[in-house]
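Tokenised fold entry reproduced for absentees:

. . .
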Amino acid sequence: MLNTRRAFIKKSILAATALSVTPLPSCVTIGTIQANIPMRSTRVERALVLWYSQTGHTRRCGMVLAKTLAQQGVRVETSDIRGFQKETLVDFDLLVIGSPVFYYDTPGYVQTVIKSWPDLKGIPVASYVTFGGPEGNQDNANYTILQLLSEKNGVPVASNSFRSLSSFPLAWAGGKVDEKTWNARHLPDETSFQSVRDYAVHIMAQIKENQPELFVKKLTLREFSTIFAPEWWTKQLVKNHSIIQKNCVQCGACSEKCPVNAIDPAQYHVDTAACVLCFGCINTCEYQAVHMEYSKKTMIGFKQFLEQHNLKLYLPPELST
């Protein structure tokens, strides 16, 4: 207990120091990525679009991107990154990875999956991220994905980011909706999905012209803040993470979304030590069976938030039939 308190005090001091630092210039480059090997081919016959998606924003963008590629004569396969067999990756001519931004970076789970992949042998690779706030460090989150793919001998050709309504429950905790979250309640809209379509066309053009890009990582304030473990701080604010047995129907949606297998619905148990606080469980549950508290107030998930405020997510034409 004493060590825990000491660690908490230490992190408090570090956080206070961070807040007192003069804002960091975003023009400072702290990393670059270039292809390690030549592009295997400029002809794309088969493409694979993978995503990690909790509330559906990233999946919908991936589906629209895939359909746009298909309109250009490409045979496209799509999948959640959690269910794909990595052994077949080298069979594709293009690999696109999509992810939400968690705590100002690519989720650790996504990073771990990519690190487990085999050599990509010069396959062109592209990334996209979805993010809920205007300052989500989204460019650097894309950089993380491309850096890992480059280390696997993928050839980075493009990256992009698409803003959406935040699915971070602290943004509406206690009944008060964060202003930036509320102002984005219409996103993603048709303009957003047109940007996704344009991005798919851009990826194909980059490959056809054999133009791998130089990608740059900038020192932003959000990037700097990752030093102070924002996930750890959030876990100090969220309490009593548990399963409400009387509400649970054991559908398994929460455990299916959990990237670290921290939920056992059969035993109504949450391993809070293993939990990475992605909020996939509370955002997915339709029965309000996942309990969390913030400042001693019960939290609600993304689906309940939408219902309470009569919000409906826009569905692009490609996905509405």
Summary: The chain has two domains: 20-225, 231-308. Residues 20-225 form a domain with the Rossmann fold fold (CATH 3.40.50.360). Residues 1-22 have pLDDT under 50 and may be disordered.
